[in-house]
Write a structure and sequence with these properties.
Blueprint lengths: L3 E2 L16 E4 L4 E3 L7 E6 L6 H12 L1 H6 L2 E7 L3 H11 L4 E4 L4 H5 L18 E5 L5 E7 L8 H8 L1
Parallel strand pairs: 4-5, 5-6
Antiparallel strand pairs: 1-8, 2-3, 2-6, 4-7, 7-8
Length: 162
C-alpha cells in the first residue's frame, strides 16, 4: 500500500515554477536546473546511495533510460550523500544519468522533501520523491513518499512525459 503525498498540502503546487538550483554532479561539475529549459526534467530525490530500495529504483531507470531520452527528458538523481560517495555509487551501478549531491540539503528544503527524523537516529534526510518539470520550468508532477521503501510511480511519470 503506497502512502503518497501529492502536492495539495505543500508549498509547491502543480504549475508552479520549479525552484532553481545549482548542485555539483559526480564529475565535480555544476548542474543548474534552469539551464535545462527546453527539456523535460525528472528529479528523483532519494535518501541514501547504496541502500536497496534506492538501488532498485535507480537501476530500473537506468535500464529504461532510452525511453526517457526519447521523450526529451533529462533524469537527475539527488541525494544528501557527498559527491564522492555518489561517484562510487554511479560507477558501481553503471548509472547513466546525473547524480547530484545536495549535501547541504538546500534543494531538499526548497522541494520540501526532508524527514525531520529518519532511520537510526539520522535527521533531515531527503525523502524518496519524484518531480517532473516541463520544458518551461514548471512543475507538472510531484510525488513525495513518506515510506522510504515505496518507489515513485515511474510508469505514471513516463505517461506524463508523453
Amino acid at each position: 500500500m503506497h502512502s503518497h503525498l501529492l502536492l495539495d498540502t505543500m508549498a509547491l503546487k502543480i504549475g508552479d515554477t520549479a525552484p532553481d538550483f545549482t548542485l555539483y554532479n559526480t564529475d565535480r561539475t555544476e548542474t543548474t536546473l534552469s539551464q535545462l529549459k527546453g527539456k523535460q526534467v525528472v528529479l528523483l530525490f532519494f535518501p541514501f546511495a547504496f541502500s536497496s530500495t534506492c538501488t532498485a529504483e535507480l537501476c530500473s531507470v537506468r535500464d529504461d533510460i532510452n525511453n526517457y531520452k526519447d521523450l526529451n527528458a533529462e533524469v537527475i538523481g539527488i541525494s544528501n550523500d557527498a559527491m564522492f560517495s555518489l561517484k562510487r555509487y554511479k560507477e558501481d551501478q553503471n548509472l547513466n544519468f546525473l547524480l547530484l549531491s545536495d549535501y547541504n540539503k538546500t534543494v531538499s528544503e526548497d522541494y520540501d522533501t526532508l524527514y525531520d527524523e529518519f532511520i537510526l537516529g539520522t535527521k533531515r534526510v531527503t525523502k524518496r520523491a519524484a518531480f517532473v518539470i516541463d520544458e518551461d520550468g514548471k512543475i507538472k508532477y510531484a510525488e513525495i513518499l513518506e515510506n522510504s521503501s515505496d518507489i515513485p510511480d515511474l510508469n505514471k511519470i513516463k505517461e506524463l512525459l508523453k
